[in-house]
Amino acid sequence: MKRRAMGMAAMVLVPAVLQAGNWGKNSLWNDGRAEVAVYNSERIVYGKPRAFTEHLITVKEDLREDTLVKADDLKKQKTIPVLKLNQVEKFDTENYPYSYLTSVFVKEAAVEQVVKLTVGSQEWCGNTFKIYKGNADGTGGTLSWNSYFDGEADQTMDMTLQKEDYLEDQLPLSLRALPFKDGFEKKIRVWDLLTTSHGLAPLVTEANLKVQGEEPIHCHAGSLACWIVRVQKAGKTDTYWFEKKEPNILVKMETSDGRKRLLYGRARWSYWDRRIPRPNILN
């Protein structure tokens, strides 16, 4: 009975409150659980919007400095504390299903800096895999990919990043650490989305990021007061709504390329522990 009581406590659904200090280094992420969020999502494939259930999982990990994989022995291995965001997308098209898994690892102490990013894409025509490994100083890194498309195949490119550069795939995580205040604004650059089935060299586009007020968003997870964040680039606007209550989870997203997310439910849950059942709010 004692073990079961502990297990149930490990999936308390009340969002934790961040303590003062750096967003990524906050003690919230040290509670031994992951933030698991479910979204009603869409993306355009073959010219049509595809609706599906998406999971975004945020959890703290320690990566080995030498291999950039999760460390088993924190006492003997040199590590980099990171926050990992897994974006899990599965949806159907007319003839066959698609599956994407994107893992973004950002520094705990500087969540705008990507340490590593991987993308796996599977559908009936083939597999595509991408991996980005950043330099220790955050000035860039190396992107490699393997694609089944003719003309793409196996390639590697160096990426030089400026101080205010973001990879498109990291925005749902890294923008949560913004100094949310109406009117906050800064110039950034955004690298093309890597969560695709193609292996193409991403381009970088100058953009303007701005916090534009507040808005309540009504969704299955509740009526949530949110900050509105707009990213304007190349004459197009992507809009993100982050909950005002810390830890500022992504509640809604609409991008100019047709991607949409709307929060359905969220919980802090040690999903790797098979003794702990899945919280009902995620079903």
What keyword list fits this structure?
globular; 15-stranded mixed beta sheet; 54% strand; single chain; mainly beta; 283 residues
Figure out the total of helices.
2
Helix content: under 10%
Task: Find the count of extended strands (DSSP E, 2+ residues).
Answer: 15
Radius of gyration: 19 Å
The helix-strand sequence is HEEEEEEEEEHEEEEEE
Structure write-up:
The protein is mainly β. It has one domain. The chain has 2 helices and 15 strands. It has helices at about 1-10, 170-175, and strands at about 35-45, 50-65, 80-90, 95-105, 110-125, 125-135, 140-145, 155-160, 165, 185-190, 205-220, 220-235, 235-245, 250-255, 260-270. A 15-stranded mixed β-sheet has the order 8-7-6-5-4-3-2-1-15-14-13-12-11-10-9. Mean pLDDT is about 90; it is low at about 1-20.
Summary of the model, kept short:
The protein has 283 residues and is mainly beta.
